[in-house]
Please model this.
Amino acid sequence: MNTPMTHQDVRDSVDDARRQGRPILLTGANLEGLSLQGINLSDALLQGAHLTNANLQDASLRGAYLQYADLRGANLVSADLQQANLHNANLAEAKLQGANLQNAQLGDANLTHADLRGADLRDTYLGVRGIDRVDLSLARRSHGMIAALRDWLWSLAGITRRQHLRPALVPVRVEITR
Model:
């Protein structure tokens, strides 16, 4: 793992990138446990970054590239993750209450024990590998996301889409009394 960065190191990287008109490059960075509350990391390159237990509450990660990032236990409450790419990211036990994940890519992400209460999941791609005990109560979801999640859960049970759309023949006994 890389040498841990400080809060000031991250701020300097962001300021330098913006001043020079280039992307924020934090690929593989060790940001473990840092308090980055409210920081603007829109469109940042954070592939494989170590953000375990980082405080990113109210941060803007809109359009950020977070593939394979380790966000275990991260505080992402009310964070803006619209259009973020979180493919294969580890979000186990992450706090995502009220986060905006519209149009985000969560393919093969680990959401085990993640708290998504009140999160906006409209048009989010959820081809996730770990979704054990995820709290989706009050989350805003699109019908497409619900259908994808339903199909994924049925696939785990070995049920194909054709099987769950086929009406089941159930014997019914009818009694008419007067």
User: Anything to note?
Assistant: Helices lie at 7-20, 143-156, 161-165. The domain at 1-178 is CATH 2.160.20 (Pectate Lyase C-like). Confidence is low (pLDDT under 50) at residues 163-174.
